[in-house]
């Protein structure tokens, strides 16, 4: 058995039933060579080697510069025309409407445009469709209504497949700024800017809609400079781009990595009332990072589109009024709590159904009557995380089901969903590599899911063991310092296609264990050599970890998770976000 396939530390089945997989021999060799060449800590070198960064590029990778990575906006088709039409509307004081998707990417995209226009002394009408009554993307009634009262409609995070709705906007020009997979033809708009158009080369396919909108504003500012005018400060808007990129699970590679990194610095200045209010209701004590954006801020912005008023998130991000921002953030926080309760009920039913069907197929899916369409995407994400498989969750209302899917790295779910729609198995469907939406008739559900399973299998879905837990190496408690974590974070930000490193603390003793809230576990542990580390395991008592570690009886364990800096009351300390554990006798 090779080192790549041998269970790490001999752990074939952890307390969560997972097989631990350590770094391959080649990654270890590259990491050791990088350590010798650069003098960087081994943990940092392991992270960079796993990302495929060669030793001679290590220092540059750790300090990405947006000016070096930002592409020429005109590399995207229709970009020049889109910016020119947008500027014409501004110069001539034409009436502008923004049609935005109801998720974080749509909200941040809309807020970018609203902010830019406000600084230019202009306003725009914001329109966000209701998820249940109108569904995703432009619809004919809404577009016709907007066209009657506006000269320009800018569709953000939607519109690429909206041929009929855009045709219905006869009285207005339409510009589409999107990133969802395009079809064989494009709608009849002034411009369709989308890195995932079929006639694009795919070099910028990782951009989310907020990234596309940002590039359009870069091009608009450039066209203004060519005429001797000056546009708003775009660097100050990168907090919105960062939030949209992370929350939409866009790959944190290339320019996305630089956009998010710089955006986090802008966010830390606390200049934008909506994000400040959102951070405060989220009780975000630490400096903003990708985890906070993806799991604290993002879900709250999304809550309005999921179960409340669809435009609430976009309006929060767009406002320049602190009191208004506080009120909207508090409402979104309430809606997020309601969303969690709805999600928990659907998740339990979906998981039971998926388990009955089997969790080792290339696709994990579940469908139920009356499941709220606002939470099916989150539940699909939970199924994906639990099984390491693409997942689809569908809620039916009568004979029509609306569903959402989430994929794993390397498996293009959006293209497969689009294929199903073209084959007539779906009423409609689309998305991008990591996420997709669909509408299906009840009598076509089983054949559609069977066909999707076949398509995903051809891409390698299901090849990885559902219980495999990838680990980057071993750390001793004494080596886990704030300084080391800060150096590791320079290899970030971490997120989609750039997973945060996960380490094992081997053969440690638990000194303290306490249940926190309903299902979380807080512990501290030591290797007996003086260093002691606190750890938090969210949802521990929903898994075997909670009971076993809280009733450890003096046994020693290997503990696996991700390192972070816990800021509380002005103090900083090392904390392990615990994900798995195994009895120490598993050491081989």
SSE blueprint:
Layout: E1 19-21, H1 25-38, H2 42-50, H3 58-62, H4 66-69, H5 79-91, E2 96-100, H6 104-119, E3 125-127, H7 140-149, E4 152-156, H8 163-168, E5 173-177, E6 191-193, H9 209-226, H10 238-247, H11 254-268, H12 273-281, H13 290-307, H14 312-318, H15 322-357, E7 364-369, H16 376-387, E8 391-397, E9 400-406, H17 413-422, E10 428-431, E11 435-441, H18 445-458, E12 468-470, E13 473-474, H19 482-489, E14 503-516, E15 520-526, E16 532-537, H20 544-550, E17 556-568, E18 571-583
Parallel strand pairs: 1-12, 2-3, 2-4, 4-5, 5-6, 7-8, 13-14, 16-18
Antiparallel strand pairs: 8-9, 9-11, 10-11, 14-15, 14-17, 15-16, 17-18
Overview of this structure, please?
- The chain is α/β, with parallel strands linked by helices and 588 residues long.
- 41% of the residues lie in helices and 19% in strands.
- The chain is globular and about 75 Å long.
- The mean pLDDT is 94.
Oligomer kind = single chain
Percent range for helical residues? 40-55%
Summarize the biggest pleated sheet: 5 strands, parallel
Q: What do the pLDDT scores average to?
A: 94
Strand content: 15-25%
Shape: globular
Judged by helices, strands and strand pairing, the structural class is alpha/beta
What is the tally of beta strands? 18
Q: Kindly, what is the distance between the CA atoms of the first and last residues, rounded to a whole number of angstroms?
A: 14 Å
Radius of gyration: 24 Å
Q: Tally the helices.
A: 20
Low-confidence stretches: none
For the largest sheet, list the strands in their spatial order.
Answer: 3-2-4-5-6
